[in-house]
Amino acid sequence: MPLIAPFVTEVDFSTGVMSAPGYVLQRRLSDMAAMYADEAAASRILAGEGDRLIYEVQGVELPVEEGQIPHCTTRITPGQVGGEYHMTKGHYHARREQGEVYFGLSGRGYLVMQTESGETDVREMVAGSAAYVPPYWAHRTVNAGNGDFVFFSVWEARAGHDYGTIERDGFRKLVVMRDGQPAVVDNPKYD
Ligand code: M6P
Ligand code: ZN
After folding, report:
1. What is the pTM assigned to this prediction?
2. Average pLDDT for the chain
3. Cys staple from 93: which of 73, 158, 159, 185, with CB 3.0 to 4.6 Å?
4. Pocket test for ligand 1, best of 55, 69, 88, 112 (most atoms within 8 A of CB)
5. pLDDT band at residue 73, thresholds of 50, 70 and 90?
């Protein structure tokens, strides 16, 4: 394994901005319109208001090899698409036996998880929440607040992102706005 020099990154808790990110990734509505339960609502927003930013990820770049520990911030913007709160795409790890840790930096949201054998688990996250995503759980984060929801993530380099399974099947649970409050409901498109 090549020797990497230690380094420190300054993180702005309210924006997720890193002092010298190795990569910055933005996901807009057009990148994930089909992931919202109400695809027609997504199309209406794209045609009317345009391609809004849903979330931004800033992370350190590390080699994909055993023992490396990538970490990043994610900032999810506030808003809804057809009543469903802004969210990440969500993924399983390509290596299912790898877990992950999330730490809430600002705002509030939900961590939606499920396994391939049918278990679901939805946890609230606020600034200061340290959430553990154990091996085998797909994970998606949702912004249920009025401002940005920002959190920090740490995982093992070889975990990898498997988006295909979630793109095809979605999550069993959705977080939607009901009477102005977040509610966890069954996904009508899930079968
Ligand atoms: C978290 C981590 C990252 C992930 C990001 C956005 O910060 O799990 O690995 O990339 O969320 O989520 P997604 O990759 O599902 O779009
Ligand atoms: Zn992950």
Report:
1. 0.98
2. 97
3. 159
4. 88
5. very high
